[in-house]
Amino acid sequence: MEARVLKPILGVYCAAFILFLYGPMIVLAILSFQGAGGGPQFPIIEWSTYWYRHLLGMTEPGRISRLPIGDSLLRSLTLAVMTTVVSTVLGVVTAQGFRTRFKGSGVVFYLVILGMIVPGVLVGLGMALLSNLLGINRSWWGTAFVLHVVYTFPFAFLVMLAIFNRFDRSVEEASLSLGVSPAQTFRRVTFPMIFPGVLSAMLFSFTLSYDEFSRTLFTSGRELTLPLTIYGTFSVEIYPNIFAFGVLTTLFSFTLLLIYALLMLRAVRSARSFKGQEEAA
Amino acid sequence: MMEFAGEQVQGAVQAQGGENGASPAERRARQERRTALMLISPGVLWMALFMVLPLVMVIYVSFWTQTTFTVEPTLTVDSWVRFLTSPTYLASTWATVRIWAVVLAATLIIGYPVALFIGLMVRNQTLQTALLVVCIIPFWTSFLIRVIAWRPMLGTEGAINTILLKLGIIDTPLTTLLFSEFAVLVGMTQIYCVFMVGPITFMLSRIDPSVIEAARDLGAGFGRIFFKIILPLSLPGVIVGAIFVSVMVLGEFATAASLSGRKVNLLGNIIVSQVGSLKWAFASVAGVILTTIIAAVITVLLRIVNVRKEM
Predict the structure, then answer these.
(1) Residue A47 is part of which domain span?
(2) Which helix (H) or strand (E) holds A25?
(3) Residue A119: its chain B contacts at CB < 8 A?
(4) Residue A76 domain-assigned?
(5) Same domain, residue pair A207 and A73
């Protein structure tokens, strides 16, 4: 009885919540089409793609300087790829180690998980102090990179741990005892089974690293990554070009997500067709 | 490093001794354990060198002597005394705790009904997943962009003021929306709320509907069902969500920096500004205090519910 009243009320509330989550982004997207003379607020003086062209350097140089995103975008992408590779490998290897019970596994588990919990500003500060002490130059591909892995490796580890928990070990053993070489077994048996996990770990690592900011702030040295460039504009007056940039990066992330979904779909399909073969035989 | 090498040597010695007397099964188990240790060591080493060591460094440097542009490794408690006797820094410690408490409460109060709807009311699995995905999608926008998006929303000529003026609710635009503590609270609540909704939804969706049905058949009203069944069963989700939100809010500085107009200075902001002026020892003191607060909060939260047992 009460549930019948409660459900529509909560439904409306949930819709309002989703509006709360999306509202600012919608406003930002609308304002990114502000005309050339307009500011980062209402009213829209004229609908145009001026700020998108401004961002890409396709307008006359004017009073407002272009966002310096070219180099920093390249750095951020490189850093994200480096982080993805290392943290996925570390995640797979460590989770593989956890398939055997060993003394101190609890401590190791919490040590790894701590990486995603500890605030970026703290490890960033610590890493800056450490590089000062050791006389190492801070750089995005060095000090910032190792911190990005500290952050993303726990995510990759957790994903792989979940995958290995559901993993039937006897399949691997059957392959080995049938005389298939360990390398072949990994390629033909183990890898296809853990592939969806590896893909998820890579997606996590890439997106987290690409957007990571507080860990990079103290450790990247003079060459800035993309989030640092954006942060730099916070202290000065903002213009709609940053809104246009927000829209473009969001579209870029969705493209990544779409690629992930397609690859995942293919993995699931091929697994299904494999099962079908077994049944037919 | 030394300890690791020692362990490996010990392991090798044990293995050699074992090969004489132990059964093949034991030998195999030992072999497997050695492989496992080898597999986990790169990850452990990485975390020890690049996470534990920097954190230890923060504690260590907080006792160094601060000169104008550098720090020297002469141990002193000067920075600590200066921090603990300065009204400005104590005020920012208090602001950190206050904003954490308000945001935590806000995410719980706003997020719980949403979790209740998605986890308990929606019983269609596809719709449930779809709603959760809708909640997660904003995370694919850059964090800093999500923060800055509140500026055109809350500003004097922003969306909210424009709408309120058009509706005739107010005559003059509200100026306290942006560049105030309110803006920081709203921004943080919006950004971190989903971390509360997720775990609670997960716990709620695991409740067996027949338990609630049984209670209803026995004549319990909704209030009683909620407080006796739903709330206790969802508590581990609340705690996990609270840990996520707490850790992220306490370590924050970007939202305060961009939405408060420098009116709100959290401990994170202190660290950033002190590093900016090369006051490393002082930044480290703020870092240690921040770590202590986070550790205390997590300890208290874990006391409430044994999360590991309940999950």
Answers:
(1) 2-55
(2) helix A2-31
(3) 247-248, 250-251, 268, 290, 294
(4) yes
(5) yes
